[in-house]
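User: Hi! I'm working on a homework problem where we have to compare a predicted structure to a textbook description. Could you give me the structure for the chain below?
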Amino acid sequence: MKSLLFKAADRGTADYGWLKPNYYFSFAQYHNPAKVHFGLLRVLNDDYVAGGGGFPTHPHDNMEIVTIPFTGALQHKDSTGGNGVIKAGDIQIMSAGTGVQHSEFNDSKTDPVTLFQVWVFPKLRNIKPRYDQRTFDMADRNNKWQVVVSPKEEENALWINQDARFSLANLEAGKEIHYTNGFKGNGVFLVVINGSAEVNGQVLGKRDAIGISEAEAFTIKAIENAELLAIEIPMN
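Assistant: Happy to help. Predicted structure tokens:
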């Protein structure tokens, strides 16, 4: 097993007033040659969007873009006709494919939105752009993995154009949970959203992450109640 630690305090940061992002990987004005991507995971931004703030219409192509909100509500519109408002418990995915224009705005003029936005390189390039979102029952991730993004139909998740899986778990203090790869040879980028946990001898606090590769399975132990996100991703 190989592991690479990403401490929350070491992330790139910026302050645009209405937007305060934290970057796990090089993005915008933040560049760290040691942290450009993890396998085919290119972007993981931990964003705070102030009330009334948002991203005006802008283009993307050939990228799988997943948005996971934690507080507040985010409004999305795109050139495929996709539109919706997402909040905690919802997951949104957009396959940019041949090209799409979209905007994202805080649905409130006063309350902030906090979210993860994740970019994954696609398996097939230049597909027809698509958009989808779904509400998941957060109780179904208590002390177990809830797969929310996957190309496997049997996992009843939002479809992604890649051999990748996104899974969430809420683990009680003292409990252990095992993760087993859905695709042979994949790595896993594990983020502790809240709380603390131990993985491969490393203690991870809130917003810390660890990239694990060359292992088909591993175990996580919650030190205190922990919210976890596992992004399983091809390494090449």
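For your comparison, note the following. The chain has two domains: 11-135, 138-233. The CA atoms of residues 50 and 190 lie 27 Å apart. Good luck with the assignment!
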